[in-house]
Every structure is written in C-alpha cells, then in structure tokens.
Specification:
alpha+beta, Lambda Exonuclease, Chain A, PDDEXK-like_dom_sf
C-alpha cells in the first residue's frame, strides 16, 4: 500500500469493501500470470535467492512479499515487478522516470532496512518490453514513507477517511464509489486533476533507467531504446 493514495490505504486498514468488476478480475488474472512468467524467466537469468520473499518489519509495522530477491555481486537485491499499458509505458520511456506508485513500493522495502539494493522492473503488457531502475535507500523517501504510514495510523485510530487524492488512478480504483457520486463526477475530477499530488509532496524520482547487468530486454535493445 506504500504507493496508494492515502484515502485508499486508510480504507484498506479499516476493512472497507471493494467493487471488483469482471473486467477488473480479468486484468488481475492476466497480471498474476505475467507475474509468474517473469519469476520463471528470472530463475533462468539470475542467481535467485527467493521468490515471493516475506518481509515483516516490527519497527515500521508493515508486512508484505517481495516479488523476488536475487544475488548480485554477493549482495541480495529486492526486485519489484510491475506491468503497464502502452500509454503509461511510453510516458515512462519518454521521461525516463518510473511511476511514483511503483517506485514507492520498492522504496518501502528498502526503507525497512531489510535490503540495501533494489530494482524496479516495468513490463509493457502489449510488447513485453521492459524498463528497469536500480534503487538504493534514500533518506527523503524513507521520511516520506514514514509520514504517510503515520498518517494512515492516525486516521485509522480516529476511524475517519482523509481527503481525496485525485489522479488518473481513480479511473481504475475499486473503491471509487467512496469518493465520487457518479462516473461522470469522477471523470470530471480526474480531467481537472490528472496527476497524483500527495501530502507531503513526493520526493524526487530517478530521471533515467539504470538496469542491473543481469536483466535486460533484447527486444528493447534491438529497437534502440533503453535496456
């Protein structure tokens, strides 16, 4: 939940229900299948320590699972795998920056102190092209994540929901009815405010892909894009 809007994260810890449409279920099933294929591919390409590695931090009061952990130069590296549609992937390719919600998840793993290195891998669903960003603990992100988690706990204790953090993500949110009265209202809000602007503001994102040596996309290299 590190990369979720604050309102959604509070709904999660308070046990709010979700409306998952058949279309969303199909997308989730496809994502799970791609996830498994990536892990299988990784087993042939890297020195894999574990897949779906559990992570529990008592000091941060968070738990989760790391998609994969590989050994690179004798050091464990946490791998976070995501998929993206053509439009979002092309935006990342053009800007050189990952999506903030993807990056936040990986930085949370590093912030807990469980890992000193990480890598975000984003795969375009249509073409299979991949972009990767190497990650290291970042004090600015650690502070931001700590503030967000503290806010979640504060609202949880008060049994209240924070204000909306409107963005494009609202268009695919499975709890959007808790924030908007109709699809038309949601669409108008997103059109007026498409970019996620959480409080506090996001720390800086990496400006260029920086893939580790063990992972690459032959197709991307052949096409002349970043590997």
């Amino acid at each position: 939940m590190a990369g979720a809007c604050l309102r959604y994260a509070v709904m999660e810890v308070l046990g709010f229900g979700r409306l998952i449409t058949p279309e969303a279920q199909a997308v989730m099933a496809e994502g799970s299948a791609r996830h498994r294929r990536f892990q299988t591919w990784l087993l042939t390409e890297a020195d894999v320590i574990a897949v779906e590695a559990p992570l529990v931090s008592e000091s941060w009061q968070v738990s989760g699972r790391v998609d994969a952990v590989v050994r690179l130069n004798g050091e464990p590296v946490a791998i976070e795998y995501k998929t993206a549609g053509p439009e979002r992937f092309q935006a990342m390719l053009a800007s050189g920056r990952p999506l903030a919600e993807h990056w936040a998840q990986l930085m949370c793993y590093l912030a807990t102190g469980a890992y000193r290195r990480g890598c975000l891998v984003v795969e375009e669903r249509d073409s299979g092209r991949r972009l990767q960003w190497a990650a290291y603990p970042d004090p600015a992100w650690t502070a931001w994540l700590g503030q967000r988690l503290e806010a979640v706990r504060r609202y949880q204790a008060a049994h209240r929901l924070p204000s909306r953090e409107v963005s494009r993500g609202c268009l695919t949110c499975d709890r959007w009815q808790r924030c908007f009265r109709s699809e038309a209202e949601r669409a108008a809000a997103v059109e007026a405010h498409p970019d996620w602007e959480p409080d506090p503001p996001l720390p800086a994102l990496p400006s260029q892909p920086s893939p580790p040596a063990w992972v690459h996309s032959a197709r991307t290299q052949e096409e002349g894009g970043p590997a």
